[in-house]
Design goal:
Number of domains: 1
Structural class: alpha/beta
Largest sheet: 9 strands, mixed
Oligomer: single chain
Number of strands: 21
Length: 424
Amino acid sequence: MAARGTSVFLLGLIACLCPIAAAGASSAEVRAGVGRETFALPAKVPLAGYSRRKGRPSTGVHDPVGARALVLRDAQTTAVLVSCDLLIVDERLFDAVRRRLVSRGIPPEAVLVVAGTHTHSGPGAYGARFFEKLSMGHADPAVFEELVRAITEAVVRAHDTLEPVRMAFRAAPTEGLVYNRVEAEGPVDAELVVIGLFRDSTHEPLAIIVNFAAHPTTLGAWNRQVSADYPGVIMRELEARFPTATCLFFAGAAADQGPVKTGEGFERAERIGLPLARQAAALLEAARVEPAETVTARQRAVELPPAEVRLGRWAVPRWLGARFVDDDATLSVVLLGRTAVFGVPCDLAASLGADLKAAARAHHLQPVIAGFANDYVGYCVPEALYRAKQYESSMAFNGPKAGELLVDHLQDMLDQIVTHDRSE
């Protein structure tokens, strides 16, 4: 009788503890959701990317452009990654999206990385600053509102469809697709990075992240049709190969990295996008799928060095230059399992990107650089390149130290996350 009573007691105890254990397992899981939205653009919207177009109207749409969102959440953190078929995401657009998302129920403490793929054939007419208008044409409030709407809808859809996921990471070098467009013997970042997020229930891919560092300029100023350039080819092909997945593209440290162009017209985008998509698919299919573990994120506003704007050989007085460029920038670091995503608000040079990647690998993390995110402060290049006075250095609006300053802050943010995680 006593033995039977003991057994009943133990069974009751186990029954009581099981919900607690289940709740603990649930709170520890990473959940993800995806959403996408196509930009509904006015006819003849000017394209962004080349001042030589002089803000002339576009002549049609070659391939659709829009926003793809990935929301990540665990028990403590919500992080939002958005890939937009835009030249840049400036501070004004980022702030408007953040306000709209909070009004739609996204937690105000969520860390956002809203990045442009840096296509030079996406819509313009949404930049308000002087230098933005040069490459985008005059600002159109209707275009700006449409971008805010589409990005918001993509994120809200992702946030409303969260489900448990596992993940895979692979990276590999590419051959003959990218070169250093500034220095013949300068560094080249030819690494292709692929991340897959897989549904726990079906083991089908929910999201694919592709990271590559060649400038999306296969379509030159001659093009007058809206296009996502080669990142659009990659996303199109991977979504066709994996129809359950939404693919996001993030440009890496691309300031001095150019695409190797072959073929004519739009064939140029296909010639680099197709091999990258095939290699990404092969990497993903061979990747080992593992638990995503946790999501951790930090965001920081950083004061930039004073403006140093140059027009050819003439240096604009600082008091005047300060009216045209940013005096701060928003940085982001998102850790998903053992992957570190750096949200960088600029055209970052490959050597500075290599420093960020080395910092992540020193913590045994796999790095992803999401350029053109949350703000745009021009080019950030090493001081030696800045002094060389090439095009890239003339677009380094905050002087020779801005790039190193941003990298130092991002490394510090990463160190803080890792130290905090290890102390728990």
